[in-house]
Design brief:
single chain; 97 residues; alpha+beta; 4-stranded antiparallel sheet; two-stranded antiparallel sheet; 2 helices; 38% strand; globular
């Protein structure tokens, strides 16, 4: 089953909290809650920037022994990740303007 075509998801940003100024040097812009289709929430979603300055969405993760980590929630495909980032970033631009 192709989830991208059969289950369109709509992402809503809630409670964006900007990171402290000193965190920006590490690429962290802030944290938000992500509401999916008005009925499911993911907390601790991070807004970060690459070294080149491009913003991206970092899903919450858990650190395990050895410094490794695994994602707690994530888009199932590259296409859905692109859709998620586009919707989140567009909403954050609307908030800034």
């Amino acid at each position: 089953m192709d989830h991208d075509e059969t289950c369109p998801l709509f992402y809503e940003v809630s409670d964006f909290q900007p990171a402290p100024e000193h965190s920006h040097c590490h690429g962290l812009e802030g944290f938000l809650k992500l509401i999916i289709n008005g009925c499911f929430v993911i907390n601790d979603v991070a807004l970060r920037r690459t070294r080149e300055g491009r913003p991206y969405v970092r899903m919450p993760y858990k650190r395990v022994e050895g410094g490794k980590h695994y994602d707690l929630a994530f888009p199932i495909s590259h296409k859905e990740r692109a859709r998620l980032e586009a919707q989140v970033l567009a909403q954050l631009v609307e908030v800034d303007t």
